[in-house]
Amino acid sequence: MRIIVKCFAGCKDAVGATSVSVELPAGTTVGEAFAGLIESYPALGGYDRSVMLAVNRQYADRQAVLEDGDELACIPPVSGGAGPQ
Amino acid sequence: MRIIVKCFAGCKDAVGATSVSVELPAGTTVGEAFAGLIESYPALGGYDRSVMLAVNRQYADRQAVLEDGDELACIPPVSGGAGPQ
Amino acid sequence: MKDGNERVYKITTDRIEPDALFGWSLKPHHGAVVTFAGTVRDNTDGRRTLRLEYETYAEMAEAKMREVGVEIRDKWGIEDVAMIHRVGTLEIGEISILISVAAPHRKNAFEACSYAIDRVKQIVPVWKKEIWADGKREWVERQS
Amino acid sequence: MKDGNERVYKITTDRIEPDALFGWSLKPHHGAVVTFAGTVRDNTDGRRTLRLEYETYAEMAEAKMREVGVEIRDKWGIEDVAMIHRVGTLEIGEISILISVAAPHRKNAFEACSYAIDRVKQIVPVWKKEIWADGKREWVERQS
Fold it and tell me: What percentage of chain B has pLDDT greater than the value 90?
């Protein structure tokens, strides 16, 4: 199956693109897909603990199983709004 | 001595004027002055417990002693801002 | 945006616009501006209100608003507080009081703004008269 | 003032004016409008900032802002929440986020508005890059 990976902020810089398309075996989980991305883009490794992952614009567990055509988003810690506190 | 009494909101309605001038013996306290006002304007009696009194634009104790030329203000419970809470 | 330490504590009969104080409070080192607008409701406890009439002891009211600003500076170290209270006849939906607090961080700004309106309602001599839809007119005289 | 139940949850690249949401949230039965504006500070922990660049996952960000609005309705029964987040390049003093909460009473409005900005900073996918005065550029990636 084929999924779209969207990358933002530091994840985007690590991947060098805002969006990549990847081919994965059926039954791949969100966590497995991100581990595969780290293999392809080692600079993503720094985000392994802090990244949140979203599938089709909903935050998802790493155990969630991906389906063909899904949009997986790599979301570094968000920093919108104003400054801290 | 002579003082000016300023009346607001319901106190103004009770006295029938925004301002009255009263002659008092030297040494009269704020509380005594207000008691005298109730004698002259019985409708003020309803405010005896709730009114705040200010001398020269500062909230004052009823024990405070008035001086010639003071401005005594009768301040019913305030209700500025928006609605309750 | 102002660079000086101007502060606004004002009683007015003019209509208050919702952004009237924004520029007075905001400075370059701030990250948060919290604004409270009190507006005239169309009812009180379900009884219909036509409009409100506000009266004040103006000379004392501005001094008391300033005092609230001093309390906020002492409690939170926040310098940039502005408040304006309208008096006279106000229609439904119009702003009776506007308070703006600007600070580097938001938590203090929220606390200080909430404190400001609580204190205004305790110590600033302003009264309102309800003009009820049934034609009655009544001073609102209760602590709240 | 709007009579319908329009709500605003918007990402924009346009400049945000401080009164942009006031009319959207205020209704005749309200007595309180609390507004939070997040603004670009000229420093972070003392280090000089030149400007900020905000990036977003727009399709998800608007949905997450809407979700914060639903949480507020469930917690406080407050329907009238509006929020707008700017992205792109922002200068010092400009508004990055504006949140407005209108309610019959002020205590809930303060709590809900403070909650709204806390939640936005947790779940809405927007990131900022500091353009430091020393020329460095850095994504700000920390929970706060």
Answer: 91
Tokens of D134: 């020393």
Cα gap C79→D110, rounded to integer Å:
20
β-strand pairing of D80-86 with D8-12: parallel
User: Is C in contact with D (3 or more beta carbon pairs below 8 Å)?
Assistant: yes
The tokens of B34 are what?
Answer: 């207000």
Token pair for residue A4? 């779209």
Q: Closest Cα of chain A to C26: distance in Å?
A: 14
- Domain carrying residue D120: 8-135
- In this structure, the number of other CB atoms found within 10 A of the CB of residue D114 comes to 22
Residue to test with chain C: of D15, D30, D50, D96, most C Cβ within 10 A = D30
Q: Does residue A80 sit at the C interface (CB-CB below 8 Å)?
A: no
- Tell whether the model's pLDDT for residue C3 goes beyond 50: no
Are the C-beta atoms of B83 and C41 separated by less than 8 Å? Answer: yes
* Assigned domain for D142 exists: no
Chain D partners of A77 at a C-beta cutoff of 8 Å? 141-143
Residue C1: pLDDT band by 50, 70, 90 thresholds? Answer: very low
Task: Give residue-wise pLDDT tens across range D59-111.
Answer: 999 999 999 999 999 999 999 999 999 999 999 999 999 999 999 989 999 99
| Domains of chain B listed by start with CATH number | 2-75 (3.10.20.30)
CA dihedral D87, D89, D91, D94 (to 10 degrees): -20
CATH number of the domain that residue C19 is part of: 3.90.1170.40
Note whether B touches A: 3 CB pairs or more under 8 A. no
Residue C53 lies in a domain: yes
Q: Which residue of C has its CA nearest to B73?
A: C57
Work out how many domains chain D is built from and give that number: 1
Judged against a pLDDT cut of 60, whether residue D135 lies above it is answered with yes
